[in-house]
Amino acid sequence: QVDVAAMARLFGYVDVTDTGFIVAVLSIAFNPLFWNVVARWEHKTRVFSRVFGSAHAACYCLGAVILLLNCVRSHCFTEAMKSQPKLEGWDCHWTYYSGLAISAVGTLFVISSFLALGFTGTFLGDYFGILMEAKVTSFPFSVLDNPMYWGSTAIYLGWSLMHASPAGLLLTAVVAISYTIAMLYEGPFTEEIYRQKQKGVKNK
Questions:
Q1: What is the residue extent of each domain of the chain?
Q2: pLDDT for residue 203 is more than 80
Q3: 134 three-class SS
Q4: Nearest in space to 41 (alpha carbons), one of 180, 162, 189, 187
């Protein structure tokens, strides 16, 4: 069972009205909303493929924007942690190295996921009509679904522990919630794209 009193003490360190914290929450929530809206618009209209001259060019452009937004998010996350107090009992070598290990595992999942999917596979290429031949089942997809999202969440969790930051832990929870909502929308939509592909192949 969750120790409610301990959770209350932990988040008593967090000032959720702090401007930096609010900006971090907004940047976390904005990113998956942005790429889902843009990618679905592209899938429906092909407007970006026409503007950039090809689906690949449009996908690479969106990928670059997503990477930039992720850098902004990480900066806001870090600044929000710096502006709020540390949890003194966690400001020790054991917590630091535990966080470092968690971040390393998260980085492994993110990098291996990118290598397995490629750039267009990672950055919503299927919404641009750039479909993969088959579902990727190699590592890290053999270990868990959506390893890119969970790996990214683990990086933020580890980063928060390294800084002994209750604010960071709360923001990590926001990251996890944002990604969970994104997965609920992306999963069925992507499956439908590939169902339509299979239907088209059978009808030929």
A1: 4-203
A2: no
A3: coil
A4: 189
